[in-house]
Design a protein that fits this description.
The complex is a heterodimer of chains A (237) and B (132).
Chain A: H1 2-13, H2 15-35, H3 44-58, H4 63-74, H5 77-83, H6 85-90, H7 92-97, H8 99-123, H9 128-134, H10 141-151, H11 155-180, H12 185-207, H13 209-236
Chain B: H1 11-38, H2 46-61, H3 66-77, H4 84-88, H5 94-130
Helix pairs in contact in B: 1-2, 1-3
């Protein structure tokens, strides 16, 4: 009997278990999404997390133990960001033609993303460390965590808000843009890249290659612009 | 960069393509570390610099870029999967979410919707203004 519980202890703490669980959850999430006609509501990041978190809580597995296995997937975010060069290069001519709209929309979108989140959270009386964690919510997680830390926020809360922002944007972008009645996929992609970084970009790549290219460039530019804005704010203080 | 009669990639090509992605990222991270010696508060992600570097390389490489393009398209096809480990991290913040979950969710959803509308609107209006 004790040998069986030893096997369980081995399994529950082995990186292989949680790497495998992450992959299986994602495949199941994609299957569920396909069953629901790839509705944006069936977001694969959201569905995967909704399957994995109860399993981790029921088995008493801590996040660090889970992450020992999941880190191998997480690690690929870096090379995947580099990979965005490919849709960008494929659509380079369109991007070059749109340099002015890109610059103007970047400034407007980036300031809206930061300002509106800060304003709403402040109205509800959120403490300074929560405000510092929500300010960089629209940029990719590593840079948002870095910025939250230097602003006096909580890096891991910033990461959660970044993910939530990404999933929200990925879910609402298609119905929202259809309701606005625009078929300009460069503009649609750029908007979801500014608002919802990599998760929004993943959604844009599903919809349209040009939207994906503009989302990728938007994500990169908003990361840079937000970092410069917030770092400048810190240096002024 | 995309030829009509695509030759199948050899096993070593896939490795070479992935290696180039890793090397671009490494070059980007190294550059960030160097810039941090000058500006310690510098918080720019190395992979984004790696991306810009790869755009330049793709322009130079021509048909030899096929392996790296195949690797990149493969990774981008499963981009959502790569965010799952971070998304599960939400389980660490039970208390903060119970205390601030409602306002934070409202702030995130409203701000994201507003950002989408403002960005797409400004983009399209600027385009129209330019083509007048």
């Amino acid at each position: 009997m004790s040998s069986f519980s030893e096997i369980w202890v081995y399994l529950a703490t082995s990186p292989l278990t949680w790497l495998g669980a992450t992959l299986v959850a994602f495949v199941l999430a994609l299957r569920i999404g396909a069953l629901l006609g790839n509705s944006p509501l069936a977001n694969s990041v959201l569905l995967s997390a909704a399957m994995l978190i109860p399993v981790l809580l029921l088995t008493g597995t801590s996040y660090p133990t889970y992450f020992e296995g999941a880190q191998f997937v997480h690690f690929l975010l870096g090379p995947a960001t580099v990979s965005l060069a490919v849709p960008l290069y494929r659509n380079l001519a369109a991007v070059k033609r749109s340099l002015v709209p890109i610059a103007v929309a970047l400034v407007a979108g980036s300031i809206t993303a930061m300002g509106s989140a800060l304003a709403i959270a402040a109205i509800f009386g959120a403490p300074p460390e929560v405000l510092a964690s929500i300010a960089p919510k629209s940029v990719s997680a590593p840079i948002a965590m870095e910025l939250a830390k230097s602003l006096g926020g909580i890096p891991s809360l910033a990461a959660v808000l970044v993910i939530l922002t990404g999933v929200t944007g990925a879910i609402i972008v298609t119905p929202l843009m259809n309701a606005l009645g625009t078929k300009n996929y460069a503009a649609r992609g750029f908007a979801v890249g500014v608002a919802s970084h990599g998760i929004g970009t993943a959604r844009a790549l599903q919809v349209n290659d040009m939207a994906g290219a503009f989302a990728g460039i938007a994500m990169a530019l908003n990361g840079a612009f937000t970092a410069i804005l917030l770092t400048g704010f810190l240096l002024l203080q | 960069m995309t030829d009509v009669v695509a030759k199948p990639l050899r096993p070593a090509d896939w490795v070479a393509g992935f290696a180039l992605l890793i090397l671009c990222q490494l070059a980007g991270e190294t550059l960030v570390q160097i810039l941090r010696l000058i500006v310690p508060a510098f918080a720019f992600p190395g992979p984004v610099i790696g991306m810009l570097l790869l755009v330049g390389l793709l322009a130079l490489m021509g048909d030899r870029a096929r392996p790296v393009i195949a690797s990149a398209d493969g990774l981008l096809g499963i981009l959502s999967l790569l965010f799952v480990p971070s998304a599960v991290g939400i389980m660490q913040h039970g208390e903060l979410i119970r205390a601030w979950g409602g306002p934070l969710l409202l702030a995130v959803v409203a701000s994201t919707a507003l950002t989408l509308v403002v960005t797409v609107g400004v983009f399209i209006l600027t385009e129209r203004w330019m083509s007048r």
